[in-house]
Design goal:
Strand order of the largest sheet: 1-2-3
Strand content: under 5%
Number of strands: 3
InterPro entries: AdipoR/HlyIII-related
Helix content: 55-70%
Organism: Fusarium redolens
Oligomer: single chain
Protein name: Hemolysin-III related-domain-containing protein
Order of helices and strands: HEEEHHHHHH
GO molecular function: metal ion binding; signaling receptor activity
Number of domains: 2
Membrane topology: Multi-pass membrane protein
């Protein structure tokens, strides 16, 4: 593969930490921001911890230090939006349950059951874990390949946790008239979630790639803001809030009108 004049070449077998050390001697390839170093060339493509060749700049130097990775949260790089969107999402879904359980639930306590509280709590815990794990995974994405692979797997796993926890209240209110079907669907969803978790963590299923829109059409233009993965993050937060509203609506309908069982 040909490289620009100021870009150091890396063999696929060469450790990334060596490549970043080599790049650090070439002023054309790195930019120092505070205490953090952002790689600016295409050095990282040879290493599999970087999935998209369309994101060309803003990479943090490979690091074995959790402290340095956490410190980089306050810097501008191509993971900043991914990290902060889900940090804010995590904070939001720590606050929303406080509002729901202190403002929305008390007027309903006379009809609320332990199951009502439990299924909603499961969802809040699941979505909070999802956003926390996602922010953590993006924070440590500048670690060497073996750590990065694990972080990517946990990033996918947190999506599964969100989907699973969201299904619990939907199934509860959807099959309020038939406890057998409700429990059967809970069991099926749990088994499917477990199988998905196993496949997510298995190396054989690491090959699926996203289409990387809009970056694939404008390589390098959306490195910091506008990546396809960033576009995914915002709707997830909005969808989480809409799901909360839907759960409250299901609660009100079931307890206000009573289950209409045939």
């Amino acid at each position: 593969m040909s490289r620009n004049r100021n870009t150091a070449s890396i063999s696929p077998s060469q450790p990334l930490i060596d490549a970043t050390e080599q790049a650090s001697h070439d002023e054309g390839d790195v930019t120092t921001v505070g205490r953090n170093v952002l790689i600016q060339g295409l050095l990282r493509i040879a290493d599999i911890r970087y999935e998209s060749q369309f994101i060309q700049t803003g990479y943090r130097a490979s690091s074995n230090s959790i402290k340095k990775s956490v410190r980089s949260i306050l810097s501008i790089h191509n993971e900043t939006v991914n990290i902060w969107s889900h940090i804010l999402g995590c904070i939001l879904f720590l606050v929303i349950p406080v509002y729901v359980f202190t403002t929305e639930i008390p007027p309903r306590y006379k009809v609320a059951t332990r199951e009502d509280i439990a299924v909603r709590t499961i969802y809040f815990i699941g979505v909070t874990i999802c956003f926390f794990l996602s922010a953590t995974c993006h924070t440590v994405s500048n670690h060497p390949s073996h750590v990065h692979h694990l972080s990517v797997q946990f990033d996918y796993l947190c999506i599964l946790i969100l989907m699973y926890s969201a299904m619990i209240p939907l199934i509860y209110y959807g099959f309020v008239c038939d406890h057998f079907l409700r429990n059967m669907y809970w069991g099926l969803v749990s088994v499917n979630a477990g199988l998905c978790a196993l496949s997510t963590m298995h190396p054989r299923f690491r090959t699926v790639k996203a289409k990387a829109v809009p970056g694939r059409f404008f390589p390098g233009r959306f490195d910091i803001v506008g990546q396809s993965h960033q576009i995914l993050h915002a709707p997830v937060i909005v969808a989480g809030m809409m799901h909360v509203m839907g759960c409250l609506g299901n609660f009100d309908y079931c307890h206000e009108h009573g289950p209409r069982c045939i």
